[in-house]
Amino acid sequence: MSAIDSLPPLREVIANHQLSARKSLGQNFLLDLNLTAKIARQAGDLTGCDVLEIGPGPGGLTRGLLAEGARRVLAVEKDTRCLPALQEIADAYPGRFEVINGDALEIDPLEHLTPPIRIAANLPYNVGTELLVRWLTPKEWPPFWQSLTLMFQREVAERIVAQPGSKAYGRLAILAQWRADARIVLSLPPGAFTPPPKVSSAVVHLDALPEPRFPADATILSRVVAAAFNQRRKMLRASLKGISPDIEAHLNAAGIPPTERAEQVSLEAFCALARELAKA
Ligand code: SAM
Fold first, then answer.
1. CA 88, CA 203: separation in Å to the nearest integer?
2. In terms of CB atoms within 10 Å, which of 35, 143, 149, 193 comes out highest?
3. Cα R_g (the chain), whole angstroms
4. Which of 11, 20, 23, 54 for a ligand 1 pocket mutation test, highest count of atoms within 8 Å of Cβ?
5. How far is the centre of ligand 1, averaged over its atoms, from the C-alpha of 123 (Å)?
6. CB 86: neighbour CB atoms within 10 A?
7. Helix 267-279 and helix 218-230: axis angle, to 10°?
8. How far is residue 103's CA from residue 55's CA, in Å, rounded to a whole number?
9. pLDDT in tens, 120-172
């Protein structure tokens, strides 16, 4: 297959800059540039968009994003060892690539970005979930981003797209699907990474909806869903007792049998319950 750019292959980049993967930084690199270009294509039409990338490492996905036509890529990378390799990419794409050296959980890159903004990342899994929750719970909706294209442990990806009635269905599914369209766009075996992680991975793509799928107050919805799934085996009239003394009446008014368990309740029904509770 043809090269996606004029830069050296990633194995060479890693050898030249001695980027041995560090477990403490969750480093499992993608070294196949055709694969990183494929992931970048899942991020949607990048032309005319600024892309925020978290954790570029040696830059495989970065190169995919740039080759796929991103107007600009802004990357946040914690590992200073990666900076010289990333500088080579900046030199090859003048004015289109900038790196901030720091922790994505501490830095607010917003001031460096111009809308429309898409986010793409192959991140350590713990940081990925935390950032996803932050990106899905901004103070105002629509958020600053148009879409998120993120690598997750397969099991977490399944929780994001889960439907009622499945074990994977819970807070993450409600949070993601309330204000975004979420789907798994790619599955990757451990062998796609260097070094291979223990589990399979999947890329999830989320498109922000202009407004929530069903009206509800974000704080009330979040409290209800947290209480319901914290005791997911209990009937809702028991698990939600702490939310309101009249919970049975509110459940009935929302059209939810009080004997139902959280796992069976649709996003639409949770939103109806949040609206009933807001009236009280
Ligand atoms: N994107 C590269 C790829 O696909 O080959 C690297 C992926 S590797 C799974 C995760 C990257 O995130 C590493 O480069 C690591 O140094 C970086 N990283 C880890 N924690 C971070 C954090 N809190 N903020 C920014 N980058 C972080």
1. 27
2. 149
3. 21
4. 54
5. 5
6. 22
7. 120
8. 9
9. 999 988 899 999 999 999 999 999 999 999 999 999 999 999 999 999 999 99
Q: What is the DSSP letter of 9?
A: P
The ipTM, to two decimals, is 0.99
- CA of residue 54 to ligand 1 center, whole Å: 7
Q: Which residues pair with 159 in a beta bridge?
A: none
- Does residue 28 have a pLDDT over 60? yes
Q: Where are the alpha helices (DSSP H) in 81-217?
A: 83-92, 125-136, 154-161, 171-179
State the alpha helices, DSSP H only, in 165-257. Answer: 171-179, 218-230, 236-239, 247-253
- Alpha-carbon span 280 to 225, nearest angstrom: 18
Q: Is 77 annotated as a binding residue?
A: yes
Pocket of ligand 1 (CB under 6 A): 25-30, 54-57, 60-61, 76-79, 82, 103-105, 122-124, 127
Confirm whether residue 103 is marked as ligand binding. yes
Centre of ligand 1 from the C-alpha of residue 124, in Å: 6
